[in-house]
Amino acid sequence: MSKNRRRIEIRFRVNRKLRRVCVHPLTRLLDILRLELGLTGTKEGCGEGECGACAVLMDGELVNSCLIPAVQLHGRSIETIEGLSKRGRLHPIQQSFIQRGGTQCGFCTSGMIMASVALLMGKKHPSSAQIGEHLAGNLCRCTGYSPIVDSVRKVGKK
Ligand code: FES
Ligand code: FES
Question: Which domains does the chain have, with CATH numbers?
Protein backbone atom coordinates (compact mmCIF):
# COMPACT_ATOMS: atom_id res chain seq x y z
CA MET A 1 0.00 0.00 0.00
CA SER A 2 1.45 3.42 -0.91
CA LYS A 3 2.20 5.84 1.90
CA ASN A 4 -0.40 8.25 0.49
CA ARG A 5 -3.18 5.66 0.53
CA ARG A 6 -2.59 5.08 4.22
CA ARG A 7 -3.41 8.67 5.07
CA ILE A 8 -6.73 9.61 6.60
CA GLU A 9 -8.53 12.92 6.66
CA ILE A 10 -9.12 14.37 10.11
CA ARG A 11 -11.37 17.34 10.80
CA PHE A 12 -11.14 18.81 14.23
CA ARG A 13 -10.99 22.12 16.03
CA VAL A 14 -7.76 23.67 17.21
CA ASN A 15 -8.06 26.82 19.30
CA ARG A 16 -11.69 27.16 18.18
CA LYS A 17 -10.86 27.02 14.44
CA LEU A 18 -11.91 24.12 12.25
CA ARG A 19 -8.82 22.42 10.80
CA ARG A 20 -8.41 19.61 8.29
CA VAL A 21 -5.30 17.48 7.96
CA CYS A 22 -4.43 14.40 5.90
CA VAL A 23 -2.05 12.22 7.88
CA HIS A 24 -1.14 8.64 8.73
CA PRO A 25 -3.61 7.33 11.36
CA LEU A 26 -0.81 6.98 13.92
CA THR A 27 0.65 10.46 13.47
CA ARG A 28 0.90 11.99 16.91
CA LEU A 29 -1.17 15.03 17.80
CA LEU A 30 2.11 16.66 18.85
CA ASP A 31 3.45 16.34 15.28
CA ILE A 32 0.19 17.50 13.74
CA LEU A 33 0.27 20.62 15.87
CA ARG A 34 3.93 21.41 15.29
CA LEU A 35 4.59 20.16 11.76
CA GLU A 36 1.22 20.31 9.99
CA LEU A 37 -0.26 23.38 11.69
CA GLY A 38 2.87 25.31 12.69
CA LEU A 39 1.82 25.55 16.35
CA THR A 40 5.27 25.15 17.84
CA GLY A 41 4.38 26.41 21.32
CA THR A 42 3.69 22.79 22.29
CA LYS A 43 7.06 21.15 22.98
CA GLU A 44 8.45 17.65 22.77
CA GLY A 45 10.44 16.46 25.76
CA CYS A 46 10.43 12.73 26.39
CA GLY A 47 8.00 11.68 23.64
CA GLU A 48 6.76 8.95 25.99
CA GLY A 49 4.10 10.57 28.15
CA GLU A 50 6.41 11.18 31.10
CA CYS A 51 7.35 14.90 31.11
CA GLY A 52 4.21 16.91 30.29
CA ALA A 53 6.04 19.30 27.93
CA CYS A 54 3.55 18.45 25.19
CA ALA A 55 0.39 18.89 27.30
CA VAL A 56 -2.71 20.36 25.63
CA LEU A 57 -6.43 20.25 26.34
CA MET A 58 -8.62 17.82 24.37
CA ASP A 59 -12.34 18.50 24.88
CA GLY A 60 -11.30 20.30 28.07
CA GLU A 61 -9.25 17.39 29.45
CA LEU A 62 -5.49 17.56 29.93
CA VAL A 63 -3.66 15.14 27.63
CA ASN A 64 -0.08 14.54 26.56
CA SER A 65 -0.17 15.18 22.83
CA CYS A 66 2.75 12.81 22.21
CA LEU A 67 0.42 9.94 23.17
CA ILE A 68 -2.62 10.87 21.07
CA PRO A 69 -2.74 9.35 17.56
CA ALA A 70 -4.51 11.14 14.71
CA VAL A 71 -7.12 8.43 14.57
CA GLN A 72 -8.54 9.67 17.91
CA LEU A 73 -8.88 13.27 16.82
CA HIS A 74 -11.81 13.45 14.43
CA GLY A 75 -14.47 15.82 15.78
CA ARG A 76 -12.43 16.72 18.87
CA SER A 77 -11.60 20.16 20.14
CA ILE A 78 -7.97 20.91 21.04
CA GLU A 79 -6.67 23.91 22.91
CA THR A 80 -2.98 24.78 22.86
CA ILE A 81 -0.91 27.52 24.44
CA GLU A 82 -1.46 29.64 21.30
CA GLY A 83 -5.21 29.66 21.98
CA LEU A 84 -5.02 31.14 25.48
CA SER A 85 -4.44 34.80 24.69
CA LYS A 86 -7.50 36.74 23.61
CA ARG A 87 -7.43 39.91 21.47
CA GLY A 88 -3.67 40.22 21.96
CA ARG A 89 -3.85 39.93 25.77
CA LEU A 90 -2.14 37.12 27.60
CA HIS A 91 -4.24 34.79 29.74
CA PRO A 92 -3.95 35.67 33.48
CA ILE A 93 -1.99 32.46 34.11
CA GLN A 94 0.55 33.45 31.44
CA GLN A 95 0.88 36.87 33.05
CA SER A 96 1.35 35.27 36.46
CA PHE A 97 4.13 32.97 35.19
CA ILE A 98 5.97 36.00 33.76
CA GLN A 99 5.42 38.10 36.87
CA ARG A 100 6.58 35.44 39.35
CA GLY A 101 9.45 33.81 37.49
CA GLY A 102 7.49 30.61 36.71
CA THR A 103 9.36 30.40 33.44
CA GLN A 104 13.11 30.30 32.89
CA CYS A 105 14.32 28.44 29.78
CA GLY A 106 10.63 28.10 28.88
CA PHE A 107 10.80 24.54 27.59
CA CYS A 108 8.30 23.15 30.08
CA THR A 109 6.23 26.31 30.27
CA SER A 110 3.47 25.69 27.74
CA GLY A 111 2.80 22.25 29.25
CA MET A 112 2.89 23.69 32.77
CA ILE A 113 0.46 26.43 31.78
CA MET A 114 -1.96 24.09 30.02
CA ALA A 115 -1.90 21.79 33.08
CA SER A 116 -2.52 24.81 35.31
CA VAL A 117 -5.44 25.94 33.14
CA ALA A 118 -6.96 22.46 33.51
CA LEU A 119 -6.57 22.65 37.29
CA LEU A 120 -8.03 26.16 37.54
CA MET A 121 -11.05 25.17 35.42
CA GLY A 122 -12.04 22.72 38.15
CA LYS A 123 -10.76 24.56 41.22
CA LYS A 124 -10.51 28.35 41.41
CA HIS A 125 -8.24 28.62 44.47
CA PRO A 126 -6.13 25.46 44.76
CA SER A 127 -3.70 25.11 47.66
CA SER A 128 0.05 24.75 47.08
CA ALA A 129 -0.25 21.03 47.87
CA GLN A 130 -3.05 20.59 45.34
CA ILE A 131 -1.06 22.50 42.70
CA GLY A 132 2.04 20.40 43.40
CA GLU A 133 0.01 17.20 43.14
CA HIS A 134 -1.71 18.30 39.93
CA LEU A 135 1.57 19.34 38.26
CA ALA A 136 3.40 16.17 39.30
CA GLY A 137 3.32 14.94 35.68
CA ASN A 138 5.03 18.10 34.40
CA LEU A 139 8.80 18.17 34.75
CA CYS A 140 10.92 21.31 34.96
CA ARG A 141 14.71 21.32 35.03
CA CYS A 142 15.13 25.04 35.81
CA THR A 143 12.81 26.64 38.31
CA GLY A 144 12.86 24.38 41.36
CA TYR A 145 9.02 24.39 41.07
CA SER A 146 8.34 27.01 43.79
CA PRO A 147 7.89 29.92 41.35
CA ILE A 148 5.60 27.73 39.27
CA VAL A 149 3.40 26.79 42.23
CA ASP A 150 3.41 30.45 43.27
CA SER A 151 2.38 31.53 39.76
CA VAL A 152 -0.64 29.24 39.86
CA ARG A 153 -1.61 30.02 43.46
CA LYS A 154 -1.48 33.79 42.95
CA VAL A 155 -2.99 33.97 39.49
CA GLY A 156 -4.97 37.17 39.02
CA LYS A 157 -3.31 38.80 42.07
CA LYS A 158 -0.86 41.74 41.98
S1 FES B 1 6.83 14.85 25.27
FE2 FES B 1 4.85 14.20 25.75
S3 FES B 1 4.93 13.73 27.86
FE4 FES B 1 7.00 14.22 27.35
S1 FES C 1 11.71 26.55 32.79
FE2 FES C 1 13.29 25.34 31.91
S3 FES C 1 12.52 23.30 32.04
FE4 FES C 1 11.09 24.48 33.12
Answer: 8-83 (3.10.20.30), 92-153 (1.10.150.120)
Which residues are within 8 A (CB) of 131 and not within 5 positions of it... i.e. 6 or more apart? 116, 119, 149, 152, 153
- Its pTM stands at 0.94
Residue nearest to atom 2 of ligand 2 (CA): 105
Output the CA 105–ligand 2 centroid distance in Å: 5
The helix/strand/coil state of 52 is coil
Kindly state if the Cβ of 106 falls inside 6 Å of ligand 2: yes
Cβ-count burial of 20 within 10 angstroms (0-12 exposed, 13-18 middle, 19+ buried)?
Answer: exposed
Q: Note the pLDDT tens digit of each residue in 93-107.
A: 999 999 999 999 999
